[in-house]
Amino acid sequence: MRPVGQMATHAETLGLAPQPVNGFVSNPCDQGRRLAAGLVLGDNPHVDISSNIAGRSRMLVIVPAHNEAASLPDVLADLAKHAPQADIAVVDDGSIDNTAAVARAAGATVLPLPCNLGVGGAMQTGYMYAADSGYDVAVQFDGDGQHRANLIAQLAGPALTGQADLVVGSRLLGGLKFRFHPLRFLGNRMLAMLISAIGHRKVTDPTSGFRAAGRRAMRFFAAHYPQTYLGDTAEALVWAERAGLKITEIPVRMRQRTAGESAIRNLKGFWLTMRIVLAILVDCLESRIVLDEDQQEGRQ
Amino acid sequence: MIAQTSITLVQRLVPLILALTVAVSVIELIRRRRLREEYAMLWICASGVLLVFAAVPQLVMWAANALGVYYVTLMVLLSFCFLSLVLVHLSVAVSRSADDVRKLAQRTALLEQKLSDNASQSNCEPLNETDGVCGSREATQPPDTSA
Questions:
Q1: Any CB–CB contact under 8 A between A15 and chain B?
Q2: In A, residues 96-125, which contact B (CB 8 Å cutoff)?
Q3: Nearest of A240, A221, A269, A234 to residue A121 by alpha carbon
Q4: Cβ B113–A110 below 8 Å, yes or no?
Q5: By C-alpha distance, which of B26, B40, B87 is closest to A278?
Q6: pLDDT of A131-155, one tens digit each?
Q7: Chain B CB within 8 Å of residue A14 CB
Q8: What is the per-residue pLDDT across B81-97, written as a single tens digit (0 to 9) for each?
Q9: Are the Cβ atoms of B106 and A2 closer than 8 angstroms?
Q10: φ and ψ at A191, to 5 degrees?
Q11: What distance in Å separates the CA atoms of residue B84 and residue B81, rounded to the nearest whole number?
Q12: ipTM for this prediction
């Protein structure tokens, strides 16, 4: 519970000033206003990411964050600038710094996990929120500034039009513009080959965490999401493939991560890749997940 | 040297059948999603090693020679089997409770978000004529002049 004085100022800012970032805050108070605006302007029959008939955003950007208070403001500013049409949910994965406060200050919805679940568990929480709130598309977006917000509309396109259930932003399509460390590149290639072989469909960048999920994929991931340590991206692809979701890749550029590019880290990354390969092979042993829409509605 | 001891057919078959049983039950546990990925891998590796030793008993002889450890009494063997069973049971139990913890954490996060959402909802100016929405907090707030 916030102190009384703070509540009053909050009400004042909401009442007097226009929304600080337009269409950015997922606040039920604004829904009425947006609804009114939508009625005046009329409904656009074309695919419009900005709002649906109820007047709220159709797109949710999920940002899993574990102790990312330092990089989060830039990421959220980037999102506000280049994807103002989207709502943002920051999943605070048991951070011990003030990640949640930073995200709230930027106007994002915060899903505070009480303990650290890893990227898989955090991402799934975001998908649960997206599915519960009835968004049409959910975009996975890293909290470390690796992904580019101006590519979100492009990424979400096929998921919104129903061309695909899951759209993966690939760094390797359309010419290699991303500098991989050789070991990481090898790991990436190995995973790509393995997943392509399992799914009978070419996958180029299975470790890309820049993805957009349509309604079907969203509901699937809300109910089933791999919890493998750092292996969630590649394994989620296998699970989606095995559940019969339509997957497409589009070429994207990503920012080069500067911090933590040491040989030890890359070796560790290679070892991790081997673990993921093993996990994927284990997945193939598991019974197939049947995509039952009714079953998806009620959570597990 | 023990390496020269001949092995009877029964002595070959019994370990092989046991190892196969272990491997099949581990795979069945994984197929039913009763084991978390990290434990699944551990047990796959364990049953793999067991199968190799059962299939090629000469390896055991070689290891015995190399280490200088020859005799394992039946009591030790039985208690080892029992402990292994306990361990499998525990990893199934840990897998399940880890899953439960995850679900609880996720549910908590979603509920906490809903709660703060509701708090800010009753905090802002009423959209319609419903003045009573903010309830008791209304009294603590200054009258809204913006609407």
A1: yes
A2: 109-115, 117, 121, 124-125
A3: A221
A4: yes
A5: B40
A6: 988 888 999 998 887 888 888 888 8
A7: yes
A8: 899 999 999 999 999 99
A9: no
A10: -60, -40
A11: 5
A12: 0.71
